Amino acid sequence: MENKDAVPLLAALAQPNRLAAFRALVVAGPVGLTPGVLAEQLGMPAATLSFHLKALTHAGLVDATRDGRRLIYRADFTRMNALLAFLTASCCAGQPCELSTAATLSCSC
């Protein structure tokens, strides 16, 4: 990943409601959540949540699949892990630290 790839992801997360929605989807794991459940968990109106999910989807951090009449939103763990690896690639300038490698931050979902 390069700066030009990371900036849109970070920009999408740089809003409190979007960050909360993304974190809730990360907690939900690969099962994901419907917009109704997510809105209830976050105490957010459906229209507001829809706006924020669209921004996260456009950035590639979230995807949606249809299950019958329902949409299921899921965090894109591959993209999330790539962003984490990018942010920690030069951690501590190569010196030993608590985060020894970016791979230790990976989510295996």
TrEMBL record:
Protein name per the record: Helix-turn-helix transcriptional regulator
PANTHER family xrefs: ARSENICAL RESISTANCE OPERON REPRESSOR ARSR-RELATED
Domain HTH arsR-type stretches: 1-95
Entry superkingdom: Bacteria
Transmembrane regions: none
Any GO molecular function: DNA binding
Keyword vocabulary terms for this entry: DNA-binding, Transcription, Transcription regulation
Coiled-coil boundaries: none
Organism: Ideonella alba
InterPro entries (alphabetical): ArsR-like_HTH, HTH_ArsR_DNA-bd_dom, Metal_resp_trans_reg, WH-like_DNA-bd_sf, WH_DNA-bd_sf
